[in-house]
Amino acid sequence: MEIALENLVEKDLKYCWHPFTQMKGAKIIPIVRGQGVYVWDADGKKYIDAVSSWWVNVHGHSNRYIADKVYQQFLDLEHVIYAGFTHPRAAEVGERLVKLLPSNLEKIFFSDNGSTAVEVALKIALQYWELEEDPRDTFIAFEGSYHGDTFGSMSVSQRSSFTQPFERHLFNTVVIDTPTKDNLEAVKDQLKRHLKENKIAGFVFEPLIQGVRGMAMHSAELLDELLEICREHGVLLIADEVMSGFGRTGKMFACDHLKNDPDLMCMSKGISGGCLAIGVTAASQKIYDRFYSDDRTKSFFHGHSYSANALTCAAVCASLDLFEKEETWSGVNLIGRKHVEFVNRIKSHPGVSEARSLGTVLALELSTDDSTGYFNKAGTNAYDFFLEKGLIMRPIGNILIVAPPYCINDQELDYIYQSIEDYLNYSE
To answer: Of 139, 185, 253, 395, which residue is the least packed, with the fewest Cβ within 10 Å?
Structure first.
């Protein structure tokens, strides 16, 4: 049964429940087509997807190369159980990722989204210490962190309106501030105190850039100093690269900016070019070897029905092909360069309290007296303004974020920047 376009929103609201959305009075836009940086609604209006649809469509919408590779895979095999079986694309994903990842990450565990990639890492870390006969039950995370919406990933995330209904079910996590030049020694003291007072299983961190905190940024050099302390205490380093991976920070992974390699790395979003859902957790050989045994009870007991789905793996391989092309990195470099230029131009505007960028990510904090954080009305007003301009920008509270597909061009970026300036001048 095909839904008529004129009834699409009506049918959707009758039967569907949207994420992070108060459904009473929800404004839903029916999108029917996408190509490159653009999507079109049912009335034919065109929008630039300035946030890559939650930062996943790194190569743009309806990429023909990825589509052809997925179609060809469908003709051979769409899916097979991954417990006791494999297929060519899964092995290819494993090999290619390991060659791209930090050198100590040698094993790939498949799941199906960013939250579960983190959940897998947390479970591996806890079971690892059980197998080491040194049970550890606490994690360290950064203030303002966000690692997903499953119970484990919520447990290592900032306590907020997102997590409040589930508080009593979440496990213990100790929190440290993100490092700056001014607070580094105090943060080191926080970290050392927690390491002394708790049995720390792992340090979970978003390297260099905290997405849901509003693309808050910290330097690689300062982060490395904290990682070094954790390493000295045997704490597992768990890098959440769900958002920052696959070119977002200007390098393939944010961890490529660091000296200390993680023991576990979580990936999703851009891994398949935004084509199909997948999560991946990479582990070091040391961790893998602790589970490797004649004793079946020492297996890692976690899995998903769609683990290593063949169609999804084909999309990942196609996306990795595109990352081998010069034009992809030319796009990454173009965005990064123009973001820096725009930040330098706009940071003194009275409507902006702070402007920052890293790689392909731009964040502008709007000057506002509203302290409601995520529910700040400035973000809602900006969202509606940009929709009228034909731009999809989903602010986080009072923070405007631009993280476009890498196929965007000069003129399209300039239109985004000009629209932001129009909004700032309009709201004065």
So the answer is: 185
Rounded Cα distance between 141 and 119, Å, is 14
Percentages helix, strand, coil for the chain, rounded to the nearest 5?
A: 45, 20, 40
What does the pLDDT look like over 53-68, one tens digit per residue? 999 999 999 999 999 9
Rounded to 5 degrees, φ, ψ at 106 are: -125, 0
Q: CA–CA separation, 36 vs 412, rounded Å?
A: 11
CA 26 to chain centroid: 25
Q: Are residues 302 and 261 in the same domain?
A: yes
* Angle value at C-alpha 53, between 47 and 59, nearest 5 degrees: 90
Residues 330 and 300 in one domain: no
Range of the domain at 261: 66-323
Tens of pLDDT, residue by residue over 97-150, are: 999 999 999 999 999 999 999 999 999 999 999 999 999 999 999 999 999 999
Distances in Å between the alpha carbon of 222 and those of 149, 213, 237, 371, 404? 28, 19, 15, 29, 28
Based on the number of CB atoms within 10 Å of its own CB, is 164 exposed (0-12), middle (13-18) or buried (19 or more)?
exposed
Residues 101 and 240 in one domain: yes
Q: Which residues contact 9 (CB under 8 A, 6 or more apart)?
A: 28, 29, 30
φ/ψ region of 264 (left if φ > 0, alpha if ψ in -120 to 50, else beta) reads: beta
CB–CB of 207/239 below 8 Å?
yes
pLDDT of amino acid 378: 84
Half-sphere exposure of 368 (CA within 13 A, CB side): 22
pTM: 0.96
365, two tokens: 């904090």
Structural domain ending residue among the three candidates 323, 348, 374: 323
SS3 115: helix
Whole-Å CA distances, 169 to 124, 125, 165, 392? 20, 19, 9, 35
Contacts of 195 (CB under 8 A, 6+ apart): 140, 229, 230, 233, 235
Q: Is 123 exposed, middle or buried (0-12, 13-18, 19+ CB in 10 A)?
A: middle
Question: At residue 211, what is the residue type?
Answer: G
